[in-house]
Amino acid sequence: MSKKITINSIKKSKGVSPLVMITAYDALFARLLESSADMILVGDSLNMSFAGKSDTLSATLEQMIYHTNAVAMGAKNSFLICDMPFGTYTNKKEALKNAIKVFQETPADAIKIEGGEDKADIVEYLCSSGIAVCGHIGLLPQAFRGEGGYKVKGKSEEEKSQLIRDAKALEKAGAFCMVIEGVKADVACEVAKSVKIPLIGIGAGKDVDGQVLVFSDMLGLFEEFTPKFVKKYMDGAALVKSAMKSYSDEVKSREFPQDIHTY
User: Most CB atoms closer than 10 Å: which of 93, 138, 236, 262?
Assistant: First the structure.
């Protein structure tokens, strides 16, 4: 993007134009992705797609700060959101201490924390202290072990009511937008209508205020499994493997390097 999006323009986009969010973890991909993205999320999903772990829970604050700085080097005009990893916002004081560390040591524009009504007091405390907060409701990856797996939300009236309460509580607390993940599409639509701030969907249908995908999923680089909500816009893994095979073959046959590549 030629001009960096602001919190006010993010809020004003609701009902006007869907927001595009994508994850990135390094300068190289951030530079490639930023021209078509409104926001870049340095997600703790990097613990899985970048570090090869089975879930996000072992990601550290130092890890998130390192990757946020790397992304910022590649995407200087992007609105950057840093995911607060598991265990870094268990209470208001701990959350503020860690959020301040992110803001002081990176150029992140905002942080993201998981949780709804139960985290509203923390969100309010952060916002009143000058920290911009993106919420995250619905399926919460950091609650994966506690819930016994990744479970789609919004399957009952009770869950729908809770999601609406979650969204309203985060809006009242001062969040400027929120991610809504793994929620039945019709319910996500109702939740989005219940608040005046944008809801960015992932596995939550199209009737929300924007979408986010993990870049390695979207580019088809991650092969282990493909979640139902992911659309692969290219078969990146096959392209990389093919290019690597060509390089390997040419090295072994001494076709590479040729004179043009030689000093």
Answer: 138
